[in-house]
Amino acid sequence: MTHERSEKKVFVRRLGRHHFAHLRAIAEGVTIEDSARRYLGLEHGHQARTAHRQTVEAVRLLARRRNDPAWRLIGITWSLNAALPSLEDFVAERDLDGWSESDVAQLYAQAYPTDPKSLRRQKLRQRQLLLLEQIEQQAAEVPLPTDLVSGWFDALTSAKLIAAGMVTLGDLGARIAVAGCWYRTMPGIGSSKAQRIASHLGTLLPHLGLQQKTVFKLASPPGLLAPAAMVHQGELVQAPAPAAPLSLLPIPLAESLLCAKDDLAAVESWISARAGSKLTATAYRREALRLLLWLQYECPDKCLSQMNVDDCGNFMAFLQHIPARWISRARAKPGTPSWAPFRGPLSRRSQAQSVVIVASMFTWLQSACYLSVNPWLLINQKTGDDANDKLLDSKALSESAAIEILKFIDQQPPGPARARMRFILRFVESVGLRSAELLNARLEHFQLEPEGWVMQVHGKGARNRIAAVPGQAFAALQDYLELRGIGSIETAPPDTPLLASTLDPTKPIGYQALYEHVRGWLRKAISNSSLPLNERNRLAGASTHWLRHTFGTRAIARDVPMDVIQAQMGHASIQTTTAIYGRAPIKRRVDELGKAFG
User: N or C: which end of the chain has fewer CB within 10 A?
Assistant: First the structure.
């Protein structure tokens, strides 16, 4: 018996005003199920009846402690008479218009005589409601955002909320405010149950402001870009115009070099003129439209030409502390309350990139006479370094890690997948290509010059360059071609892809296939290696791009001149190469300083 009592579900731990609202609704004739759904957040009938019984018991206990003789009235339901017509309806129904008030009242009393039992029930019900009001004023608790969810939700729901990190009512409100599938990590909680939880929280904390998340849409001036625009992966997506439109019209200049009639069109002109690739265009459009959305929602009635120095500083501060409502939920679709312009807080590097792109856009628009001034020139655009950055962390394979990975590959059964992975590891490690460059390469891009084998690469920014193919890379390529059964580089068809499908040695592969192929092999090799635990943890996220960084760090360690590394890797400036690889490996530095101060 004790065990059964301990297992009984408890729905009432703290009495709030919603419990008394539930009891008043019952007294007014509302069914237990309907009232529990509205005030207690319960859907199932048996739960509603159990919660009702526990509520009645808790309030009756308080009434008995007050020595109120009417405590038994708490929870009693009344069989009320059918609703009587109003006096106005009675007059209209009986065609009594023009009769005196006393005559109408007399006729009404004759048609609907007062039942003594019904009169007594009405008096008892009034006494019940008065008692509920008195107890509520004395004992009802007011929920606070800092209250634990376990005090206001049933034990099972509370346990799921707490396990998902929502310990207090405020935590729950903040999670719901972000929108999306906030309940995804809670087992047994679907969209319907989640909606009831949110509705019940709204009953508990009506002033918490559980409003729908902003549906971010970029408005257009009337008659220019009629459908509104939203930002999705750097693209404009059509959507209905929002309630509060933004004026994107610039301050007109006398001799603008653009045909743009508004900021959106000006942004597209800038992207078309300056972006050298689709990826660059996507990045430019994303940052520009984030700024336009920020102006729309945080600086109403402002357009690009009206931004001043303070606005620039405020936008930089906004990037450093992005509000939760501006952060999108995973897999959210544009136009839904779950979608927002940002996927999460920006790193210092991402903040700096955003500022650089926006500032360069203003410089171009000013040069095109679309803007008269450029406030970004007066702003310190440096965001500084992130204190949490680990300078010793490198997305590159150490010598020992590369040996262990190659050892694991060689131990696997021969096959197209093993051959391709071995080639990728040896080739990229010694040539330093990007993933896209590796995928786009064909054998016709290789040629033998007096200086040795080289390949022409069509790289980032649609720029061509010549990359040297050292002995390690050339030997790996010849072995790979032979294992594919297509001969050597001298005899294979010129249009043969450098990387091939494991099913057809003449067909190329895509980026996703390359990424998953390399990630899978590296993960298996690292987990089966004898590397120290800390290095295995560091290499857990290793991918194809790590092999390019491996080339850079290995070249530095072997005293390759910086300008040679820059040309080989296709960096636009040597400053980029220096920023990434311009420090001697720690071992070499320690050795040299040890000689001087050891």
Answer: N
* DSSP summary character for residue 458: E
Q: According to CATH, what is the number of the domain 228-378?
A: 1.10.150.130
| DSSP of 431-451 | H---HHHHHH-BGGGEEEETT
Lookup result for tokens 């101060």: 597
How far is the C-alpha of 224 from the C-alpha of 580, rounded, in Å?
45
Q: From the CA atom positions of the chain, what is the Rg in Å?
A: 36
CB-based contact 20:136 (threshold 8 Å): yes
Residue 307 and residue 462: Cα distance in Å, rounded? 33
What is the rounded distance in angstroms from the CA atom of residue 510 to the CA atom of residue 14?
A: 59
**pLDDT bucket at 221, cuts 50 / 70 / 90:** very low
Token digits for 558? 């072997």
Which structure tokens are listed for 156?
């099972």
Q: Phi and psi dihedrals of 315, rounded to 5?
A: -65, -40
Rounded CA-CA distance 267/288 in Å is 7
Q: Which of 148-162, 176-190, 295-309, 418-432 has the lowest mean pLDDT?
A: 176-190
Whole-angstrom distance, CA of residue 184 vs CA of residue 327 = 17
Q: In Å, what is the CA distance from 73 to each residue of 17, 55, 76, 483?
A: 18, 13, 6, 90
Query: Taking CA 144 as the corner, what is the angle to CA 6 and CA 151, rounded to the nearest 5 degrees?
Result: 5
pLDDT in the model for residue 585: 55
Phi, psi of 564, deg, nearest 5: -70, -40
> What are the residue boundaries of the structural domains of the chain, listed by start?
9-80+121-204, 228-378, 399-593
Residues 6+ apart with CB under 8 A from 276: 461, 462, 463
pLDDT-based confidence at residue 12 (cuts at 50, 70, 90): confident
**Tens-place pLDDT, residues 401-430:** 999 999 999 999 999 999 999 999 999 999
pTM (predicted TM-score): 0.54
pLDDT at residue 587, rounded to an integer: 60
Q: Which residue has the higher pLDDT, 417 or 103?
A: 417
Beta bridge partners of residue 453, listed in sequence order: 448
Helices (H), 72-180: 87-94, 101-111, 116-139, 155-163, 169-178
Between CA 566 and CA 548 the distance in angstroms is 12
